[in-house]
Every structure is written in structure tokens, then in C-alpha cells.
Amino acid sequence: MNSPALDKEIALRIGLAARELPETDIPRLLRVLDDAVGLPPDKKQLAGLTVKQLKSAADGELADLDSGSIRAALACLKGDIPVFEEPLPEVVPYQDGEMPNSIRVACASNRGDLLDGHFGSCRRFLIYQVGAAEQRLIDIREIGSVPKGEDKNLYRVAQIADCQILFVASIGGTPAAKVIRAGIHPVKKPQAGSAAIEIAELGAVIGRSAPPWLAKIMGQPPEQRVRFVPSTLESTA
After folding, report:
1. Comparing C-alpha atoms, which of 167, 101, 108, 90 is closest to residue 134?
2. 40-61 in b/e burial notation, b at 16+ Cβ within 10 A?
């Protein structure tokens, strides 16, 4: 006997919720929901879910995840987050060499221009060319299915191999190490704000006195690298 079909809106909610959870795909979340409320879940069951239930279901499958991510996923499951697609920002044409003394930055994103993606589950990377005087969104790279047998994290690293910095809502230790080995500097931005605003702030930092780690990325000689008082721009490395 076939299982009942999953309601389209609920399927979209589950997809959004999975993207709020670090290193979590839809099958993993479905295992948790199966134990918590059974499959397929209906809107009433999802409305009654709690953070405690999600963390304890399936022998604590999600127990190690931070409560903020769990709450964000729960909001998606309950329908508090709209399931329609937010419009993507407009890409601006760019040719190599047009912006001297600039760097390339990848922003992990799930919705619109938000910097709200976890490295292992984000839907796309927004690619910015960033200088002190100008910042451009030069590409949007959708993350497709990982080829069979290929490492998921290395597949994602390859999508941003031409970038020097990665802005991301969260990233685990193992994928972070792979990002760093590729010569990309990961920076956590857990507040899930506008990528464009974060990029503008980075441009302002470049225009003032870049912290040593950023000055190194930009190729400044050691004598030009200044001491830096930490602010909102903090490296994970």
C-alpha cells in the first residue's frame, strides 16, 4: 500500500526548514518528523511541534544543533515563513580587471539577497566583487545535486573556488577546514541580514584599515598591515 502523498505546501515548508539546519538535508529532517509526529505530517501536527520535540526525536538526531537554528526551522514548519520565492537581486556585468584592488566574496543564501545560508545546505552562493569604492554582485551560483560519489563539501567548495572570502550563517569544523585548504577565508555571519549590507560594510573596512587577515588576502605587504580592533567583521579562522 502506498503512503499518502505529501501536501505541496507542507513539502515546501519542510524544504525551507531543512535549509535552516546546519548539515541537514530533507531526508534527515523527515526521519526526525517521522518520529515526532509521523509521516506525512499535516498542518495541525506541525503547528503543535516544539523545539524540545525536534531536539529529542529520532534518538536526538538534532540534539547537537543550536536552538536558534531549531527555532528558525520550526518557524518554517509552522508556516510562519512564507513559502513563495523571494526575488533574487540583479547581477551586474563584470570583466576581470575592472575593479583594481578588489576581492571576490561568496555569500551563502537561501532567500532573495539574504545572507542566511548554512554552508552545507544553502541553495545558492551570491558572488560579489568588493573594493573600497564599489561593490558588485557579479554572479548567482545555484547549488544543484551533488554528483554520485562526490564529496558534498568539496562540491560546494568548487562552486566558489575563485573567491577569497566566504560569508556564511554557519559552517561546521570539517567543511570549514576544506574551505580553508582551498584558499578561501570563512567568516560567520549568523544574523541573517542583507548580503548587500554586509558587503558594503566590508567595502568600508577595505577603504579604512583592513584587519591583518584581510590585508593578507588582498596581497598587502606585512608593513602595510595594521593592528585591528575587532568589530562586526570577524574571521572564523
Report:
1. 101
2. bbeeeebeebeeebbbbbbeeb
Highest mean pLDDT among 9-13, 107-111, 117-121, 135-139: 135-139
Q: Alpha helix locations (H) across 61-211? A: 67-78, 152-159, 173-181, 195-207
Radius of gyration of the chain (CA): 20
Q: In 203-230, which positions are buried (b, 16+ CB within 10 angstroms) versus exposed (e)?
A: bebbeeebbebbbebbeeeeeebeebee
CATH architecture label of 103-224 = 2-Layer Sandwich (3.30)
Q: What is the DSSP-derived secondary structure letter of residue 150?
A: S
CATH of span 8-78: 1.10.150.590
Q: 113-166: per-residue pLDDT in tens?
A: 999 999 998 989 999 999 999 999 999 999 988 888 899 999 999 999 999 999
The pLDDT confidence band at residue 227, using thresholds 50, 70 and 90, is: very low
Q: What is the pTM of this model?
A: 0.70
d(C-alpha 190, C-alpha 122), whole Å: 13
CA dist 31 and 176 (Å) reads 26
